[in-house]
Design goal:
Elements (H helix, E strand, L loop, with lengths): L1 E5 L10 H11 L10 E4 L5 E4 L6 H5 L5 E3 L5 E3 L9 H5 L22 H5 L5 E5 L2
Antiparallel strand pairs: 1-6, 2-3, 4-5
Length: about 130
């Protein structure tokens, strides 16, 4: 299974460059609220990296059948089938599926690696796991 992981979580500086790169790539803006990964804070104030584990909860919630798993284990949104209902967003236990107010369809992490390249601390990586 191909997925984005925070391999060096303790090195995250919460600079948000990963989120900016993701939002810029998919929404053409620097709005981190539409990024497909999140940098939050733990109780002790240290950064917490949330990346899509490709669990499939979004696909289970999609009544249109727009979210399917590809051969590499990545769940993707079929833009032609997505009705924009937002049920995938509600179902994501990590808050990582996104339906921007000005867009007709939802989106999620497809483990493309744009955020990995943007991270100055090399915290993120794309892994192929069984």
């Amino acid at each position: 299974m191909k997925k984005l992981v925070a391999a060096k979580k303790d090195q995250c500086m919460a600079c948000l460059q990963c989120q900016v790169a993701c939002a810029s790539a998919y929404y053409k803006r620097d709005d981190t609220t539409v990024a497909y990964l999140k940098i939050g804070a733990k109780k002790d104030g240290e950064p917490k990296v949330l990346a899509c584990p490709q669990c499939g909860k979004c696909a289970e919630a999609c009544e249109a059948g727009a979210i399917t798993q590809n051969k590499k284990g990545v769940y993707t949104v079929d833009k032609k089938k997505c009705t924009g209902c937002g049920k995938c967003v509600e179902a994501c236990p990590f808050g990582l599926a996104v339906k921007a107010e000005d867009k007709e369809i939802a989106g999620k992490c497809i483990a493309c690696g744009i955020c990995v390249k943007a991270c100055p601390m090399e915290v993120l990586e794309i892994r192929e796991e069984d």
